Sequence to fold (664 residues):
Amino acid sequence: MSLDISFIGILIGSIMASSVPLILAASGELITERSGVLNLGVEGMMIIGAISGFALMVITDNLFIAIVGSMLSGIIISLIFGFLTQSLLTNHVATGLALTIFGIGLSAMLGKNFVGIPGKEFPILFSSLKESIPFFGPILFGHSIVLYFAFALPFLTNYFLKKTKLGLVVRAVGDSPVSASNQGINVILVRYCCILYGGAMCGLAGAYLSLIYTPQWIENMTAGRGWIALALVVFATWSPIKVLIGALIFGGITILQLHMQAIGFRIPVQFLSALPYLMTIIVLVVISRDSRKIKLNTPTSLGRIFYREK
Amino acid sequence: MYKNFFRYLISAIFLLGFSVNSNADFKVGFVYVGPTGDHGWTFQHHEGRNAVEAAGIKTTFVESVPEGADAERVIRQLAQSGHDLIFTTSFGYMDPTNKVAKDFPNVKFEHATGYKREHSNVSTYSARFYEGRTLLGHIAGKMTKTNTIGYIASFPIPEVIRGINAMTLAAQKVNPNIKTKIVWVFTWYDPGKEAEAAQALIDQGADVIMQHTDSTAPVQTAEKAGVWSFGQASDMQRFAPKSILTSIIDDWAPYYVERAIAARDGTWNQQDTWHGLKEGMVAMGPYNSAMGADLVKEVEQLQKDLASGKVHSFTGPIYDQKGNILVAEGKVADDGMLAGMSVYVKGVEGDIPK
Fold:
């Protein structure tokens, strides 16, 4: 194995690429949860985004429409969740689970005619710089626009929640919907918006898989990444920056364990396969020890049904 | 009166025989491990099913059936709903198939790539894919510049280990410096993971990639990275036109048609079939012209010799990783040894996961 500096650059580049869907989905879900809504339908929304994006790419031959369409489809499917939980006051957990099952089934049905069609090459930015600069080239350049967006997103989310008035409103709704409502905030409307935003990000995360990462449509291609994104939000104690760290660790160990196998490390392969889950949990628990901060970040009313008494 | 009775009896037997022979209700069921559109393993079984259908026999199929408890439920369901012959097309269906076969002695079962025939109504069949791997190894050994071949393996079963060994032996023959790097992904089908594994092997210096998994993700990754690759189970050329050197193609159609007709006509017998290049159950896709005319000619000759039996994939002397002799000089491995293969040959790196 060559451990030279340019190799490590390539390695970091591929780790970044593999963590994009987790970052997108988890950042979206984070906003939803900060508003007090627990949506377990991440996996379902991602897979719907994946098939919608791919189908639109095949039909329109336009990647921009495909990307926007995948986000729209995420919004539409999360609207079902929003209507059920916010307007009909159904249980968040049960509705979210149903959404995932529904999404996987629906995507398989919609995708029947799109199986086995080769995907289109997604344009990458600054590909010439990638080759010419050692180490930093493969890290900073030669990625798709979605990757750059994904890496900016946790910082934008952090800024939004901490520094903007709207962010404060979202947090207030998540912590104490009753007092927020008394302040004249339309709690249901805020929660609707947060649910739809989460849906859009999950849709984009799915489209990243079917359009950019492995450009093709395959049944159940999200393969549990939605559940990992959900777990990341909790283990990162609802902090956007920690979500980013967690996603990078998870992606990193996943890729590293494949490399360790290829190098021929004499560690049981089954243990290596479990390593990403183990390490991500350990690291996130360690960096989130500060219980005062956890209390500050945790949306107190998470998963609780809110309705205005008339 | 007796005369009439016999006449009726004879015609009744005739009618009965006739109705069995041309039974309009005769149905064949197929159980697939992946979606029919995987353009790999399941796709080829589905092509075989289409051939059975074209021969005028009714068929049904169930796709994406996980190996395990679900498989038994699906197979049982097919047996209960009046299917007369059921093809279970993945190694992991071995125990469920035998279990259901016990409860339905009148239904015939055909299990792919397995070795258990616990009841007289269970047959097994497989293809000598390792003959294709020998050709791949020969090509890979000649084409690699880094002397490193990357191999994405699914599960540590004899079928997969045999492929790794056959490929390595053939590659060593043409290039003694060859190294085989193996990554186990523990799935038949997860495009994201298969792509990541391919990328890891490429980053580790492999410039020829091959896989014993079912999706087209590895060849697409190879195409993007500009390294060589091979199609698995089906001709995958259009997914990676520059990168694919050839494909191992499974052609189940003739076997499926033959067995379905035999079962319908009542001539079906339990058997264990293992066909290869000779019978056409294993075929090769078109050879990439990037190999050069000389190498193509060489490989085509080797293909002929493997088919005729002049060359065997496992010809001694063959040593295991520790240097113990597995097959003596001048001998070839027998089918029993091939079927139970559970050690790497010399030159393969790493351990087989338990």
Summary: Chain A has one domain: 5-223.
